[in-house]
Amino acid sequence: MKTILVVDDFASVRLYHTSFLKQKGYACIDACDGAEALAKLPLQPVDLILLDLVMPKMNGGEFLARLRAMPDYAHTPILAITSEALKERTKEYQQTFGIEALLKPVRPDELLRKVQQFLN
């Protein structure tokens, strides 16, 4: 079973994504910000990360920089799900860190299609 790490500062968004993806047969773990996500990574390997880019404590950009510096996670696929998907900073993250981005709120069929694209 593939495992997805869902990182978002809103509990309702984390719950929505993890519940939906679990129904589709994926294992999920969640984190409320980049710092918590980095702390959870050594506890369980993940196959994909869904990442909000605007969070307190450690935002998506800082998380991406730290994650990509870790050899075990240098190539882990990342799908940003953010209200800033169309902004220049997100485009820079896409080029610099090799991520893809979807605009919040993401439709369930679109989320599932992208997850399957990454994991199948």
Summarize it:
The chain has 120 residues and is an alpha/beta fold.
Task: Report on this structure.
With 120 residues, this protein is an alpha/beta fold. It has one domain (3-119): Rossmann fold (3-Layer(aba) Sandwich), CATH 3.40.50.2300. It is 42% helix and 19% strand. It has 5 helices and 5 strands, in the order βαβαβαβαβα. It has helices at 11-23, 34-40, 60-68, 88-97, 108-119; strands at 3-7, 27-31, 48-51, 78-82, 100-103. The chain has a 5-stranded parallel beta sheet with strand order 2-1-3-4-5. Strand 4 (78-82), helix 4 (88-97) and strand 5 (100-103) form a beta-alpha-beta unit. Helix 2 runs parallel beside helix 3. The model has no long low-confidence stretch (mean pLDDT 93).
Descriptive keywords:
120 residues, alpha/beta, Rossmann fold, 5 strands, 19% strand, globular
